[in-house]
Amino acid sequence: MEENNKLQIENEELVAKPKLDLDRILIEEVGQFGRYQARFMAVSLLMVLSFATLSAEFIFTSARVRTRCLIPECENSTENIQFAAEWLSHALPNTSTGYDNCRRFARAAANDTSPGDSSTDKCSITFFDITTTEPCEAYVYENTNTVVYDFGLACDEWRRSLIGSMRTLGTLFAMPLTGYVSDRWGRRTALLINLVNIGVIGLSRYWATSYIAFIAAEFLETALGSGIYTCIFIIITEVVGPKYRVAAGAMYSTFFALGHVVSGLIATVVPNWRHFTLVLYITNLTCTLVTIWFTTESVRWYITKGRTDKAEKLLNKIARVNGKQLSETSFQALKLTAKISKETQMKKKEKMIKEPRLIVQVFNHKPILLRCVVAPVWWMTFSFIYYGLTINSVTLSVGNKLVNYLCVSLFEVPGFCAAYALVNRVGRKPVLAGGYWLCALAQLGFLLTPAGHSKISLALYMVGKGSISMVVTSLYLYTSELFPTAHRHSLVAFCSMLGRVGAILAPLTPAFGAQLPFMLFAGMATLSGVLILLTPETLGCRLPDTMEDAATIGRDNTI
Known about the structure:
Distance between the termini: 47 Å
CATH class of the largest domain: Mainly Alpha
CATH superfamily of the largest domain: MFS general substrate transporter like domains
CATH architecture of the largest domain: Up-down Bundle
Strand order of the largest sheet: 1-6
Helix content: 55-70%
CATH topology of the largest domain: Growth Hormone, Chain: A
Order of helices and strands: HHHHEHEEEEEHHHHHHHHHHHHHHHHHHH
Strand content: under 5%
Structural class: mainly alpha
Radius of gyration: 28 Å
C-alpha cells in the first residue's frame, strides 16, 4: 500500500512539473559543447580517420596490375624477364592503351623455336602469325604489389572486382548486428566489439595464402566490424547539444574523406599489399587501445535502461570538466521525464499492435507509397556513383592512379561544405536535384573529353565526386523528413538497405569496361534528379508524426 501511494505521489509530481529532457540539460546546465565534448570529439574523429583508412583498403590491395602474355618463343620464365621488352610489338596485339594485357599473336605454323634469347634479332616477327590471336597461357606482371599477382587474377577482372563487392556485402549484416548489441549492451560495448573485430580480422589477411581465404576475411571484417562509424556518430550526437550536431556531422564526413587521403598516402609509401595491410591494421589496433579508454557510454542509453545512477555520475563528470554544475532538481526532473516517456512508449507499442501493418498503411497513403518507390532509387544511385567514382579513380587511363585517388578523395570535402551551406538556405530539393544533375553533366563531360586532355578529364571527374558528396550529405536529412515519426526508422532503414545494392555493384564497375560505368553514372544521376521533383520540399516544415502528417507535408505544416 505504501509503495502504491509513493508511486502515485511521483506521478502527481511528474504531471505538476514541466518535462525536462537531456537536450535541455545540455543547453541550460552542463554545456552543449564544452571541454568534455571537445575532448571526446577529438578522440572520435581519430577513430573515424582510422576506420576510413580501412574502408578504402581493398582499392589498393586488389588494384589492377598491368600484365602481358609470357612469350616462351622469346623468353624463359626462369630468367629475369623484362615487362617492356623491345620485341613486344612482334608478339602482342596493340590496343588504344598499349599492348593487349590478355592475348598474344599465335605462333607461326613453321616456327619450332624453343625458349631462348629475348633480343630483338632472335625474337623475330616471323615467329608469329599476326593475323591470329590467342589467350595467354602464362603471364608477366608489371609489379607484384597487389593480390592480383599472389592469387593469379591477371585478366580475371570479375574475381578481382568481386573482392570489393563481398566487402560491401558484409556491411548489410553489420547494421542489424551492431544495432542489436548497441541497444542491449550499450554503445561503447558495440563500438569496442567492432573495433577489435575489424582490427583482428583485417590483420589476419596478411597471412592469407588463397583467394578464398582473402575474400572470406574481407566479408567477415565488414560483417562483424563495420558498425564503427554508426556507433561513434550515435554517441557523439547523444552527448553534444542540438546547436552543434550539424557541425559534428560535417566534421565526421570531412575526416572520413581525409581518412581516404591518408590511405592513399600510405599506399604510396608502402605499395606491397601485405606490408600495406600490416601498417594499416597495426595502426588501427594501436589507435583502438589508446582511444577506447577515452570513450564513455551514452547518457541516453543509461537513462533508457533505468541505470540512472550511472547517468547522473556521467552528467556530473561532463558538467565538472566543462566548468558547470548539474543541479539535483534538474536530474530528478530528467528521471521523471524518462519514466513517463517509457510509459508513453509502452502505450504506443500497444496502440501499434492494433494498427494495420506498416505495408498496409503505406499502400493506403499514396504519397508515402510514391516516396517508398523513389527514395530507394536515390540511395542506390548515390552509393553506386559515390563508391564507383572512388574505386574507378585508380583505374583511370589518365594521370597517376595514386594522385587521381588523392585528388578525388579530397574533393569530397567541398561537396560536404556546400551541402551544409545550402541545404538550410535554398532547400533540400534544389541541393539534391542540382547535385545529381551536376554529377551527370560531369560524367558526360568526362566521357566526351578528347584523349590527351588529362587535366580536363580529371577536373570533371573531381566535380562529379564533389557533387555526389553534396548529395550524400543532404539525402540522409531529406529522407528522414519525408516519413512519419512512428515509422521513420523502419522506412529510412528500408531505403538504406536497398541503397546498399548500389554499393555492392560499384566495385564491379571496372569490369564493365572503360566507358560503360560512366554512362551508367550519368543515366542514374539524371533519373534520380528527376525523381526528386516528385516529392515535396521539407525546409521549414515540422517533422511529421503520423502518416497523415507525412502525406500532407509541405502544404500546411510549416513551422
